[in-house]
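Re: weekly structure request thread

Next one in the queue (163 aa):
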Amino acid sequence: MDWLSLVPDNIAEVLVEILRFTELRRRILHDNIHHVDAPAFIPQDMPVREFAQVLNDAVAEHLRSRRLLFRDTTNIMFGLHGSARIRPVADAHAHTLLQKSRDEYMELQVNKLLENALNRKVAAELLRQKCGVCPDRSDWHVDITLAGDGPFENSSTHCDTAE
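Done, posted below.
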């Protein structure tokens, strides 16, 4: 289902982008836990600060010009027909922890999963309050690619969207 067709305004569109991003991040963090014993494993994370800056810039543009404009960054690329590709980044801190203490590494991953779940839950509830709908996690399989399928994660997001 195309959830953006149900989006009445730019704020709701930002919430949909957060939902998509948090689903991608959940998959990456899940892989960090499940592949911990793989030889030469390097933990990854989504570019969280970069994504937050993209959202901040898009909202600032909306306040200036009444249009929501998502701009490409080093690890986040926006494309045609509402698509976006997000490249996971190596997590040097997690890698260091993994080499030092597996327990501390696992605790870090669990804490990141919890933070991500909270962010997703807040965005979903705000979207439900705003639009009366909230995407079910099972609906995301069409819109995004699993971690490791390529250099970028596909989150099917919109760019250069005018109100």
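The longest strand covers residues 76-78. The helical segments are 10-34, 48-65, 92-100, 102-131.
Next request, please.
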